[in-house]
Amino acid sequence: xxxTQTKTSWLNRTVLGIGLTSLLSxxxxxxxxxxxxxxxxxxxxxxxxxxxxxxxxxxxxxxTKLAAGHYTDRLKKRKPLAVLGYAVTxxxxxxxxxxxxxxxxxxxxxxxxxxxxxxxxxxKALLTADTxxxxxxxxxxxxxxxDTVGAIAGPITxxxxxxxxxxxxxxxFLWTLVPGLIAAFCFLFLxxxxxxxxKESKSFFLGLRSLPVEFRKxxxxxxxxxxxxxxxxxxxxxxTRILAAKHGTAWAATLAIALYTIHNCxxxxxxxxxxxxxxxxxxxxxVLAGSYGVAxxxxxxxxxxxxxxxxxxVIFLLAGMFEGxxxxxxxxxxxxxxxxxQHGMAFGTLAAVNAVGDFASSLLVGALWSAFNVEAAxxxxxxxxxxxxxxxxxxxxx
Length: 398
Hints:
Elements: H1 13-42, H2 47-72, H3 79-94, H4 102-129, H5 136-164, H6 169-175, H7 177-190, H8 204-209, H9 213-226, H10 233-247, H11 249-278, H12 285-303, H13 309-337, H14 343-371, H15 374-393
Helix pairs in contact: 1-3, 1-4, 1-5, 1-6, 1-7, 2-4, 2-14, 3-4, 3-7, 4-14, 5-11, 5-13, 9-13, 9-14, 9-15, 10-11, 11-13, 12-13, 12-15, 13-14, 14-15
């Protein structure tokens, strides 16, 4: 083993700095995400707009992630690119406060997610550059855990601010600027940049073609799964609509946000625990495929359209578990399938595949839900989740 576990610490300044940055950034935009469905209702927009906002912003973000992944491997310093991305996301999310029409939300969300696209490959490449390969699962798991702690703080803060401001959504959106901009400064001052070797200049398409065959097989499995992996903000809308008949719209929305907080708690725990477990197994693919299996069960339960608050809690719990595990393990498996000198391109391509999947799945599930019913929407998701798990199990990753 080229990296000795007894002599190398994986929990260093860079890992902690990236984790803290992720916590603050997610705190910012998850507070906005938690109240976004309700805000759409206030300005008179339906579920189709929510699917369009999520899908279009993720789709545009995919192109940025591809380009950023290609160029981050050739930059002498990756950190300025990541800092810029965090700043753009914070400012665009704060701009939600000035929106009066649904199409304006599409634009603002797209700009925010373009900032995420710029920073994502650079951030992950900086993380792997300062982390031994035997600890990729834990490093990415910790990053996702702290990211999700921010996602837990976001909805809680949003609820508290809504009560304090008399349900003034615009003031909550403005508040998101505080943690969002602090995140950019944390990345700037805490994350360490490791020097990288000057690489042979390659065209974008030649860089894609040079990625290992097993990594490309891995992308197929991720892509199939991602085609059914709907935005989890749809869960808030799902629960609000089901609970409204019994509890009323206002209380149903509160319960839905509370369930989403439970979702994020289990996502945080799952991300680190699954990463820790994957570092101790001969192949990380088994834990990743297992998380895809949990997604299958979640989609099947969504098809029941249950009115039970208890079963809704189980659905949100399972959704959080598979989301946390897949987010950490897809990055860890990708890092193991590609050499470090190609990690920027690898993470950019993986992020792009996920973004395209988010675009397709958000539009697909939203359209099937609107045109047919819940069973059709989440039944398709379950089938795609199962196919993705089978493809991951066929990988020959060492």
